[in-house]
């Protein structure tokens, strides 16, 4: 089995959303493995997430905002060590300082929404995976798992952006339902509550779920995968224009925007022909 086919036979929430947004976007990111240019927003999300994960390494009663700020600064320093070019995303040190300040503000909002000294997560940044009976491997990373004394699980996800507009909440919960399905199938425990924490506008979205919700998302995921396999066999990955195209990194390779469609990678082409 080729590496491309292995990637097609596994699915994460982000890759599923890519395909739902635009099959060509999915192809470029999953099959062609085209790199996306780094962004300051994504980088800020990474270092803020790391700070919120590591703050729970400290004993209860000592998890102060100042410590979280220091953890974020350390995450930024590590990012530079791993890839010195990240500083090129900024014009000068003043811009970096403003950007870091915006990250600290997100952490401040988190402490206003939750007191980490009153929480003791069961697991943090945990990788979950499960292979469905049809051969599809589901996987992803959960920001936080809380467990009640009764054993019930709550899935928590941090978002550094703003909460969705009214009527779009269900789309936002797809990611957490995906994780809940994987945990249910792999551990035999059905998470009861999903919780989205939007630091961009200090809003929390909780949602209770049951078995019917997870069976529905399982059917939806399987349907997405069947559509992906169909496109792979045909070699046809159509573009789906939408407002999200404004943020796409691959417009120069999209016929909808006058770009030149890239040829399929050789291994994917041979699988299509076979």
From TrEMBL:
Residues 10-255 form the PD-(D/E)XK endonuclease-like domain. It holds the Pfam family PDDEXK_1. SUPFAM superfamilies: Restriction endonuclease-like. This is PD-(D/E)XK nuclease superfamily protein.
């Amino acid at each position: 089995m080729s590496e491309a086919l292995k990637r097609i036979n596994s699915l994460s929430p982000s890759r599923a959303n890519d395909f739902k947004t635009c099959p060509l976007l999915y192809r470029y990111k999953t099959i062609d493995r085209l790199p996306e240019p780094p962004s300051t927003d994504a980088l800020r999300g990474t270092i803020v997430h790391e700070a919120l994960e590591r703050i729970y390494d400290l004993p209860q009663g000592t998890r102060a905002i100042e410590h979280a700020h220091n953890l974020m600064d350390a995450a930024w320093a590590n990012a530079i060590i791993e890839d010195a070019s990240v500083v090129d995303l900024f014009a000068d040190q003043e811009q970096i300082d403003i950007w870091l300040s915006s990250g600290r503000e997100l952490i401040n909002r988190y402490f206003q929404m939750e007191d980490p000294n009153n929480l003791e997560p069961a697991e943090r940044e945990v990788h979950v995976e499960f292979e469905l009976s049809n051969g599809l491997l589901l996987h992803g990373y959960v920001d936080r798992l809380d467990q009640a004394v009764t054993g019930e699980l709550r899935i928590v996800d941090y978002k550094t952006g703003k909460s969705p507009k009214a009527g779009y909440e269900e789309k936002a919960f797809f990611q957490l339902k995906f994780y809940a399905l994987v945990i249910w199938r792999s551990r035999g425990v059905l998470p009861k509550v999903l919780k989205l924490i939007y630091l961009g506008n200090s809003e929390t979205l909780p949602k209770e779920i049951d078995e019917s919700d997870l069976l529905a998302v399982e059917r939806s995921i399987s349907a997405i995968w069947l559509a992906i396999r169909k496109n792979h066999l045909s070699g046809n990955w159509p573009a789906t224009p939408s407002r999200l195209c404004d943020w796409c990194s691959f417009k120069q390779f999209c016929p909808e925007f006058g770009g030149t469609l890239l040829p399929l990678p050789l291994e994917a082409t041979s699988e299509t022909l076979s």
